Amino acid sequence: MLLMDLLFCETTSAIWQFVGYFLIALKTIVPLIIIILGIVDLLKAVIASKDDGLTSAFKSLIMRLILGFSIFFVPTIISMVFSLVKDSATFISAGDACQVCLLRPTSDECVTYKTNAATEREERNKILRTPVPNDYSESEEIAESNNNSGSGNNNSNTISGNYGAVVSVKLNDLSCDVTYDGQALKSLQMNENIKNSLSKGLESTCKFLSNNKSIYNSSNVVTAGTYNPGATIKYPHFYAMGIDLFNSWSITYNGKKYTPYANYGPSSWTTYNNFICEVCNGKEECDKNLNYQLYKNIFKDLGYCWGGNWGTKYHDPMHFELSKKADGSCSTGNRPSFSC
């Protein structure tokens, strides 16, 4: 199955727009060149007063006109290619920014894509420039219980340290519900520095679920929370810089029910290992591995790390958090190979 990155096209929208302008220029310049060259060839043939030369010049003009006319079919061909990709891709709207900026580089839609990309880069740079508090521990170096994330409905709206305030972000603009403990949330608390990227990640997850109902049998985003201000150790959930997803999600395969992201630590690794071996035939990248697909195709390019990549002691496959490293990389710990 083709998995097209939802964010690549928007991130590179300026490049697609440049190519779009180039195509417009080609459609203007090429016909002029053809006309000028054709006129020159015909004039040369007329001046030479040779019938063969005139015939040859006329044939050359016809071939050039056909070639020049074919340029106007480039947008149609591009549209057909994108339609074929969309029909076979996991993400139906994956190439929208590519297509819009390539075929309509002067449109407001393309400008919006560019603006969003610039805003995302600025937000990311702002976070990377923000000093990390001394008490902000790496998640893979601390122990997190399964239920300490909080529901996102806590009334506190500020946090200590240099990461700014926790804000309540309304979820009514998403194309699906975000549920906590079976109840749809009207808002979700998150750090103000990640509200744009996390909101984008949640909407992309909604689209992913919508286009893969037959695989995941879920139409809503399930969260175990984002914010835990009562944590004794100041880790990502204390600063609302992470989110737990699909902790209760399950899949039935060959009559057996699997809940691969429900646990934390060594027991989580055992559960996850069995899921990969028995459901995915030992291949972590299989399409039934929901949180892996979300990380690979959505959250990784948003700058998030995934707890499923951490070693057995702190293995946490429900957990996604913003990378705290200057280069945006993620720690992987000493995760062993799958034992199938």
Molecular structure report:
There is one protein chain. A hairpin with a 2-residue loop joins strand 2 (178-180) and strand 3 (183-184). The protein is 44% helix and 11% strand. The longest helix is centred in the first third of the chain and has 36 residues, at 13-48. The chain has helices spanning 8-11, 13-48, 51-71, 74-88, 96-103, 108-129, 195-210, 213-216, 266-279, 290-299, and strands at 166-170, 178-180, 183-184, 187-191, 221-225, 242-245, 251-253, 256-258, 304-306, 319-322. It is of the alpha+beta class and 340 residues long. The chain is built from 10 helices and 10 strands. Strands 3-2-5-6-10-9 form a 6-stranded mixed β-sheet. The chain has a two-stranded antiparallel sheet with strand order 1-4. The relative contact order is 0.11.
In angstroms, what separates the terminal alpha carbons?
24 Å
Order of helices and strands: HHHHHHEEEEHHEEEEHHEE
Biggest sheet statistics: 6 strands, mixed
Strand content: 5-15%
Radius of gyration: 27 Å
Into which percent range does the helicity of residues fall? 40-55%
The gross shape turns out to be elongated
Which structural class should the secondary elements be placed in?
alpha+beta
Regions with pLDDT < 50 over 5+ consecutive residues? 1-6, 87-94, 126-161
DSSP, total strands: 10
Widest beta sheet: strand line-up: 3-2-5-6-10-9
What's the rounded overall pLDDT mean? Answer: 77
- The DSSP helix count reads 10
